[in-house]
Amino acid sequence: MIPLSVPNFEGNEEKYVLDAVHQGWVSTAGSYVNRFEERLADYLNAPQAVVCQSGTGALHLSLIEAGVGQGDMVIVPTLTFIAAVNPVRYMLAEPVFMDCDDSLCMDTVKLERFCTEECDMNGNVLIHKKTGRTVRAIVVVHVFGNLADMEGIMQVADRFKLKVIEDATEALGSKYIKGKYAGKMAGTIGDYGAFSFNGNKIITTGGGGAVVARNEQSIKHIKYLSAQAKDDELFYVHNEIGYNYRMTNVQAAIGVAQLELLSEFIGRKKRNYDLYKKLLANAEGMGLMQFREGTDSNKWFYAVELNLCDSNAASAKLRSIIEKLRQDGIQTRPIWGLIHKQLPYRECVFYNIERAQYYSDRVINIPCSTNLTEDDIGEVVAALKKVSI
Ligand SMILES: *Cc1c(COP(=O)(O)O)cnc(C)c1O
Fold this sequence. Notes:
11 helices, Aspartate Aminotransferase, domain 1, alpha/beta, 10-stranded mixed sheet, single chain, binds pyridoxal-5'-phosphate, Aspartate Aminotransferase, domain 2
């Protein structure tokens, strides 16, 4: 079986983990935690990074710091992994679901239209007319390592005074090379950026995450919240409600080793993508999806769009194709089911969803691990070409 995505520990992981264990520093303090935070901040060119237990935790901390309150609205994509949305509910806030564009990331035109047509500015606050709720923030997901149109999104956010949380959990190392944000890394443009080191991400700590923020005070406060909000370590003084969200030193030891490999991994993701692209160029009824112009993506996950016409039958067809590929020893998966259709979110406001449904019915992800061989890729492509669309 060629798996969809598996972690790759070919560097100093074992050495650093054993070192952490031998030192006896296995919990949430220790030199690897500091080192991982410093190296990550350096890599991202961010003032400071705070590592934590998961990408979901990183998003939760960002929403708290953004001042999202009970009953507030937060604009989120519907085509994404549900962890990008659940933290909105942890805040007792209400998601508003937005469509995607052809990059699979949030549609900026619709975002702007929602803010102008469905909402009114009241002083410095954007109010959703129908519900009277305050729209407080946007969660933008850089899907599969592709980059969202941050230039457009930041313009909307500035105009309507919205906080921007970048879900960069899939996009560590992706950057803009053209336009206003040329040279900027995913996660470092909005007010907050969240990263994940879950097992399937481009680098992993088993489970883990990180947050960066544009504002240096903000990131210090996030660190404080992530460690039980201790105002006095010795006398146990706490002036706020904190969380037990710190990463452990053992996880960070893996993280430091993985970060050393990140450039190599991105190089392989790019080469494998190029090979897939070449081999799939003449495939009938399908195409490898592109990454946004003007960006240098980490090419974390590869998406194949199947040309399934009849929209009613598309989803059933997708299922049978995935099953056929599985029988051929190729693990693939459909892109996510739309979040606004999931049971906990069916009553929420959504806006003009079209492209997200289209792609949700037609896109599969194909094997993309950093240890794929050229033969593996040839095998995946042969199996794909065998399925009739
Ligand atoms: C992986 C992922 C998350 C959550 O990260 P965890 O570390 O698994 O909590 C959030 N959003 C998206 C888009 C993801 O892919």
